[in-house]
Amino acid sequence: MAHNNKPESANEAQDHSQPLDDGGFFSLSDVIMAGRRQLTRSEQLLAADTRRNARNLFASAKLLALVVIVSLAMGVAAWAFLASLNIATDYREHHVWIYVLLPVVGVATAWVYKNHGLAAKRGNNLVIDSALGTRLIHMRMAVLTFVCSTLTHLTGGSAGREGAAVQIGGTIASNISSLAHLKKHDHHDLMLAGISSAFGAVFGSPLAGAFFGMEMCFIGKIDYTAGIYCLVASFTGYFTSLALGTEYEANVIASVPAMTPTTVVIVVISAIIFGLTARLFAWSVRTVKSLYGRFITNYIARALVGALVVLAAYAMLDAWKYAGLATWLSGAGFAGNTTLADAAIKLVVTALTLGAGFQGGEVTPLFGIGAALGGWIGCLVGIDPSFLAALGMLGVFCAGLNVPITTCMMAIDLFHGTAAGFFVIVAFISYLTGGHRGVYPAQRIISPKRRSLIVDEGGTVADAIERHNDLSRRKYSPCSHNRGQFDLSATAPSRHTPGVAPCT
Questions:
Q1: Where in 360-477 does DSSP place strands (E)?
Q2: Is 10 exposed, middle or buried (0-12, 13-18, 19+ CB in 10 A)?
Q3: Model confidence over 154-167: pLDDT tens digits?
């Protein structure tokens, strides 16, 4: 069969057109031009992405540098603060006459904060509000809380150290943020980093410190956007304080029981008790403050009476050894040498001290209360007291501050993950038991702990407490048509309506 060697015509030879879906044709040159245009757009997008990533990287590097500066400063401040507390504690234990100055310190603290403290009297709640907003915290807050907290411990007030540390870290971060003219989101991240560095440096718990900064401001949320900054800050603050010679207390779990159904039940019941204890602690502090504010209008008289009540409690209960940090209480709990009275006395004197307006934190007392309570339960049920003392420390701390993930990280820091399963159980059971309560009224409720508490979503702990109190007053107040009976018409508010239906 012969081949057709007839050459193509000139038009046919140049025709490389391709059919289009719509029946038209496009040439090879069109394809080339379209490809060039697409390539140009891709190059433009790549260039834009590169510029944006460079800007983001520069901004992140700038913020990270500021985080390191804040953390280094906080590490030094933590070392100085802890050293001052050690000196104050040692002096008080060898010079008991110093207790007579507790009223003087109480009155002086009240006067200074009233006349020169600006908003510093709000303490950690001010730090939370600043972290979630842009409000500048005046440097005097750091100075005042450092000095007044040290004087509180020197003269025998029962308080902790975390409160002062977080306020110092928050103040440093806030002022550096202002000097650097940071935008709101960068200010937020730097504030959380300042909180993390304070916690990690003061408690020698860098993992817990990292998550504490991400978790402290909220209930039901962890702010992972600040994660790397909080992690760097906590470890930097911790290593700085450690390098300067800070020594941290350590307790050891002697033995961990097998995870049997019986042990799990005991741990769950204990976790509920720990959560209720933390709730009682927070309620006690609020109640003491409320009673003083209601019945004593003059702030000087209120501070004086509050200090005298603390001294009277020490004398009546023979509770002088519970003054200050009382870190011995944790060790005694791990050794099984505590009773229920030890936990109760520490709770009472701490509530009286903080409720009277003295400066100090809540975490160390919560540790002591939890360890004493857990050690006593351990002896009661026949389980190694050090095991339940550790769970008590973690559970009361978790419920009091609403920080379950921080609690799990603290278990790793303090006990190297021993009994990890039990730690998780205690953290979340105590967290749920505590409800929307805690020692920080300014915490935002992002995700309610239970569906029955959905009405609290979007508010603060203070809002939830006030709503509950208002509901209780309405529910139990006598109505004109049903005097002496419960007001059944007083129903819980809806999710979007914070008010409560009035008695009709």
A1: 444-445
A2: exposed
A3: 999 999 998 899 99
